[in-house]
Structure formats: C-alpha cells, structure tokens
TrEMBL record:
Record keyword Zinc present: no
Entry keyword annotation includes Nucleotide-binding: no
Segments forming a coiled coil: none
Transmembrane segments: 709-730
Record-given protein name: Klotho
Family statement drawn from the similarity comment of this UniProt entry: Belongs to the glycosyl hydrolase 1 family.
Annotated SUPFAM superfamilies: (Trans)glycosidases
MF (Gene Ontology): fibroblast growth factor binding; fibroblast growth factor receptor binding; hydrolase activity, hydrolyzing O-glycosyl compounds
Keywords, alphabetical: Membrane, Transmembrane, Transmembrane helix
Length: 733
C-alpha cells in the first residue's frame, strides 16, 4: 500500500508539486545487558524485529531482515522479485517516531530479547544512519509525558525535550548523521491511547473539566520557543571561560576530613640497648635490664607526619584544612581524661605545617557516622539535643585554642553541619556552641594569638526547575533558607532565624523552631571573622507533585535534576555556574564579607587511569569562582579542593592510595599548575600579576646586616690565597 502510494505520487504529482513522501516508522533503542557477542546480536535482532521489519524492505533491498526470516519463516509472507523491486527505495527521507507511548509502553516484552531498553535517541539515529545507507532523517514525533495531575510547570517533560534535542544535535555535529528536522509531540494535552487522560504530553495545558478548554502554554512550550529562536544551544556568554588571576594572598588549599592519628614513634626513641650477634643469628639481641637515659621526644619522632607534609609541598598548596577528632582528644567529653598523646600529635602536625610554610586550617568538629563525631558520653546523653553539649564544646574549644593556637591562626568551629537531618533543637544548641567557642577565642586568645575563626556551612545551589515559573522560584528560595539560612541568618544576618522559615512553619502549625533570648542574639550575631562554605553541586526544585516518592511534603517541593547534566559515578551533577550563583546569593543576603570556598570536589571512578572528570570539574568550578571574584566583586579569599587522598575519602582524592603508598593523580598535577598560575592567566588576563615571592632565611640575618664586613673578609681570604700561591710558586722555582 505504501509503495503504491509513493509510486503514484512519484509519477503523477511530483513533477508538478515537487514534494516528498515517506513512511513514519516508530522504534525503541536497546542496549546489551552484558557486553558479549550474544547480547549484542540480540539487540540487533530486537531493532530488526521492530524497526527493520518495515525499514529494510523500503530502504535496502525490498525484503525482510534475515533475523525475521530465520525466526518467523512459517508466519512471514514472501515477496516476489517484482514486489521487492517495487518496494525498494519508496521513501524520499527516513521519517522517525521516537517517544514513550509507541516506542516503549506498547512494545511487546518479547521484542526486547532479554536486553535493556534505553531512551537514547542519539544512538538510534546513528544506528539508522549506518544500517540504512545514511538517509536523510526527519524526526516526525518525539517527546515525553508527565502525570495527568501536573499543571503548567511540566519540568520533567521540559528536560526530556531538552535531552532529545541535544542528542539530535550531537548526532548531527559529532556523528555526522543527516537529520533534517525535528517535531515535538504534542501541541496540546489530549486523549493518550491506552493511558487515556492519566498522562499529559502537550506543550499547551488543557483543563479538561472547564467549558472553555483554553490552551495555556506550559514551561516546555516557552522553553521550546526559546530553543527555536536560538536554533539550538549556542554558548551563553556567562558560561564562557574567563582569563584572569586571583589576589596575590589568595589561599590555595586542600581538604582532608580527618588526618590519620598515627602515634607510632620512630626507632630512635627506643631506650633499650642491643647487641649485634654477628657470628650466629646476625640479629640484634636485647640486653635485659640495660637501658639508656630516655630522651625528650620530638615531632620528628612521629614517623607519619613528614611524608604527608612532603606530599602537600609537592602539591604547592598554601593551606591545609582538616578536622580534629573531639572523641579522640576527650574520650569522656570533659577534662577528666585528656588524651595528651593525641594532642601532642596534632600539635606536631600543625607546627610541622607552619615550618613547611603551609597554613593549618583546623576544624574543631564535623559530623561523622559514629556518634555524630561527638564523644560517646555526650552522644549517649542526647548529643546536640542536650544544651550541655554546647557548654562542653566551649570547654573543648578552650583546650584546643590553648594547646594548638600558637601555631593555628585559621579556625573553623564546625565544618558542614548537615541541616537536612537535624532537629530544630539540635540546630539551636549547635548555634550556641559555635558562638560560645567564638567568644572564648575572641576574648581569651585572639589578643595574643592573632588568629581568625568562623563556621563552615554546606551551601549547594538550589535552582528553580522551571525558570519561567514564579512558584518554582519561591520554592527555590524557601529551600535555600532552610538549607543555608537556618544557620547563616543568626550568625551573619539579623541574629534570628530567617523570616521565610518561621512563617512557613507557623502556617503549618509547626511551632518547634525555638526562639532566641536577647542574650542569645547578642551571643550569636556577629560571631564570625569570615564566611566559609562547602559547595559540591546544584539541585533543581519544582513545586508540582510529579513523583510522590521524591516529593517532600514538609517543604512542598520535589527535587530533580537536568538529565542533560554531566554526572559523577555517584550521580552528583556537575554544574559549575551554581557556585557563582550561591556566592552572589550569600553576598546579597549578608553583605560584602570575606569568603572562603572551604571544600569543593567530586567523586570519580576509582579504577579510571585518568581522572578526567575531576580535572574538568576543578577547572570549571575554579573558573566560576574567578568570575565571581572579578566580574561580581565577591570578596573571595580562598579555594580548597576536596579531597587530599582516597585513603580518608575514597573516590574523591587527588592522591591515589594503595599498598601504603600515595600516587598523584592527573587532577593533582592540574591543581598544582592552577596554583602556580594563581588562576587562569592568558593574553587577556584580568586581575593583577603577583610579584615573585621569596622566603627570607632567618638564620641568615647576621649576614644580611653585615655586608661590608663580609666584603672585607672575602678580600682578606682572596689576598691570603694569592700570597700562598706566590710563595708556593717561587719556593718551587
């Protein structure tokens, strides 16, 4: 029937009308369950059974695929030779339909041949191009669907549309496929076959219960309109890389959540006396009862410290950020038992860092799986729910300031307290604990230690899923206040919780958020010297309840991701521009404060020889930080990469750790180059170039102040040598 119609048009109408005719074929895409020859052949068979059934006779040789003839010989009719010639070539282009209803939901499970379906339009386009002799392809139907309850903010549909069109562009630009057109399905919501009105696939919303049934554009329609205007995805100016450098005193750091406290002493601290049995066993034999005088221990005796500092020097970092282990220093949570050995180890670490010209950045506490990172007794008695924990934290902080503060000038009270699983009471006490520790340092230690101290907050960016939706913008702001503002507003802002947070909870009759007394406000407000943030990714939020499993009823928000974004193996989205946005948001909320990106990193495949993802991540995130500094006027003072090694943070390290050895990854070498360049210098470099720095040798100060004397001594030595030479010469003569 198709062939007869094509021939009719070709002979009777094409000469005068000049049009084109084809047949629209629907297909799925399938991937091998395992990368074996058998699985790959089964995938080929699946496509031949569905798409090839009609495509091969028309586009190749007028006959069915061999796999159909082999498996369905009793059912499949035969074409005569004249029919084959008549059918072959009866299409002016390849018209493809690819979408959820025809391509997936109605596909006979047997047609998958136990392989895996995948919505990969790019791979299907490449397969058609190779299988059917590079035809022109017109995508005549493509799209996705959302729940029937979804109104106009159809974020899920919009991002699938973006994915499919982006894959089409990649097929054209990267794979050389001749795609000549794209058609989105569908114009408006309607009756969707076996799914009825339970799903919506339109670009325009229809209220089926209304009399007028007006067509209202959805977010996907506005997105598609903008995309058509731009004819694709042209590079946005704000996403282009920037050449420039950071300030000369910029802090380039690396993070190690916890350093391994290894108090094993070197062999030189052993006071015992040994005899060497040179004649028989060839071993050292301990002499019982004979010992030497025990010498004073030194930091060099801790064998594990120097190798790690050597690795930091190899990286060229100026700062090293790590957390103390509260439970290790004070096992009982109070001063009744202070582990002086551990404190001595930490003291040696920070003093050796200072000797190596690396600034230690020390956090007093960070959350951990075991007892929340608290001493067992404190965790047992309510942890941060108990107000006593805040007082215990202040005493612990005083001990650390007293013992380590002579070497540590950069303190973090609390590193990345995670608000999403924290109760309001715990958050309240945590804020008091931070403020008490800050006041202890400010009043008792700052005058003579001259350091600085603040809190480090986790600050991932929250972006509206539908950029055209006012409701999504409101939701994004609400989540930012609950995620960041909860702890930031009392310290850096008004001294109280964010109004958005209080109003939202009161509207829902949730009165669990505590109130600060006037003394509390005075204690907490302003308890900072800088603003430190950890940032890793960006999350999209939507107000509409598309997926009940992922919907947060508490905040009336649904988190999602843009499926076109690059992801890490653990599905963390790589969205560099989110860092710049969160820095600008913090400046807008809390003013022009000194800011440090205290932790930023991504996981990568442990078995990957080249950690290309981390290099890409670091390059682009640091470049966004540079834009924030140069273009947005953010007072950015430092950047810390996460993490030092795979030993303490598997998959995140810049050093690979195996068999007790550290091996630098390509990302470490790239980071070192970035540090050496102080950013991204280029022909159009913005920012100022730093003068060459040198370290003055303190032991050499005697010589620097007596240059004339040195010249005179050098002259005497030279004269003495000449005299000796002359005496030797004439005496020999």
């Amino acid at each position: 029937a198709h062939a007869k119609t094509w021939h009719l048009y070709n002979t009777s109408f094409r000469p005068t009308q000049g049009g084109q005719v084809s047949i629209a074929l629907s297909s799925h895409w399938i991937t091998p369950r395992r990368m074996t020859d058998h699985s790959i052949k089964e995938c080929q068979k699946s496509l031949e059974f569905v798409l090839g059934w009609f495509a091969k006779p028309i586009f190749i040789d007028g006959d069915y695929p061999g796999s159909l003839k082999d498996n369905l010989s009793s059912l499949l009719p035969d074409f005569t030779e004249s029919e084959k010639k008549f059918i072959k070539g009866t299409a002016d282009f390849f018209a493809l339909s690819f979408g959820p209803t025809l391509s997936f939901q109605l596909l006979d499970p047997h047609m998958k041949f136990r392989q895996l379906e995948s919505p990969s339009l790019r791979q299907l386009l490449s397969w058609i191009d190779l299988e059917y002799n590079h035809p022109q392809i017109f995508i005549v139907e493509n799209g996705w669907f959302v729940s029937g309850t979804t109104k106009r903010d159809d974020a899920k549909y919009m991002y699938y549309l973006k994915k499919f069109i982006m894959e089409t562009l990649k097929a054209i630009k990267l794979d050389g496929v001749d795609v000549i057109g794209y058609t989105a399905w569908s114009l408006m919501d309607g009756f969707e076959w076996h799914r009825g009105y339970s799903i919506r696939r339109g670009l325009f919303y229809v209220d089926f219960l209304s009399q007028e049934k007006k067509l209202l554009p959805k977010s996907s329609a506005l997105f598609y309109q903008k995309l058509i205007e731009k004819n694709g995805f042209p590079p946005l100016p704000e996403h282009q890389p920037l050449n420039g450098t950071f300030p000369c005193d910029f802090a380039w750091g690396i993070v190690d959540n916890y350093i391994q406290v290894d108090t094993t002493l070197s062999q030189f601290t052993d006071p015992n006396i040994y005899l060497w049995d040179v004649h028989h066993s060839k071993r050292l034999i301990k002499v019982d009862g004979a010992v030497t005088k025990k010498r004073k221990s030194y930091c060099v005796d801790f064998a594990a410290i120097r190798p790690q500092i050597s690795l930091l020097q190899e990286m060229h970092v100026t700062h090293f950020h790590f957390s103390l282990d509260w439970a290790l220093i004070l096992p009982r949570g109070n001063h009744s038992h202070v582990n002086r050995t551990v404190l001595s180890y930490y003291r040696c670490v920070v003093s050796e860092l200072v000797r190596a010209n690396i600034t230690p950045v020390v956090a007093l506490w960070r959350p951990a799986v075991l007892h929340q990172g608290l001493p067992r007794q404190l965790a047992k008695h309510g942890a941060w729910e108990n107000p006593h924990t805040a007082l215990a934290f202040a005493e612990y902080a005083r001990l650390c300031f007293n013992d380590l503060g002579h070497h540590v000038k950069f303190w973090i009270t609390m590193s990345e307290p995670y608000t999403r699983n924290m109760t309001y009471t715990a958050g309240h006490n945590l804020l008091k604990a931070h403020a008490l520790a800050w006041r202890v340092y400010d009043e008792e230690f700052r005058p003579f230690q001259k350091g600085k101290i603040s809190i480090a907050l986790q600050a991932d960016w929250i972006e509206p899923a539908c950029p055209f939706s006012q409701k999504d913008k409101e939701v994004a702001e609400r989540v930012l206040e609950f995620d960041i503002g909860w702890l930031a507003e009392p310290i850096f802002g008004s001294g109280d919780y964010p109004p958005v947070m209080r109003e939202w909870l009161n509207q829902r009759n949730n009165f669990l958020l505590p109130y600060f007394t006037e003394d509390d406000r005075k204690l907490i407000q302003g308890s900072f010297d800088f603003l430190a943030l950890s940032h890793y990714t960006t999350i999209l939020v939507d107000w509409d309840k598309e997926d009940p499993v992922k919907y947060n009823d508490y905040l009336e928000v649904q988190e999602m991701t843009d499926i076109t974004w690059l992801n890490s193996p653990s599905q963390v989205a790589v969205v560099p521009w989110g860092l710049r946005k969160v820095l600008s948001w913090l400046k807008f909320k809390y003013g022009d404060l000194p800011m440090y990106i205290i932790s930023n990193g991504i996981d990568d495949d442990l078995h990957a020889a080249q950690d290309k993802l981390r290099v890409y991540y670091m390059q682009n995130y640091v470049n966004e930080a540079l834009k924030a500094y140069i273009l947005d006027g953010i007072n950015l003072c430092g950047y810390f990469a996460y993490s030092f090694s795979d030993r303490t943070a598997p998959k995140f390290g810049l050093y690979r750790y195996a068999a007790n050895q550290f091996e630098p990854k390509p990302s470490m070498k790239y980071y070192r180059k970035m540090i050496d360049n102080n950013g991204f210098p280029g022909s159009g470099t913005l920012g100022r170039l730093c003068p060459e720095e040198f370290t003055l040798c303190t032991e050499c100060s005697f010589f620097h102040t007596r240059k004339s004397l040195l010249v005179f001594i050098a002259f005497l030595i030279f004269s003495f040598i000449i005299s000796l030479s002359l005496i030797f010469y004439y005496s020999k003569k």
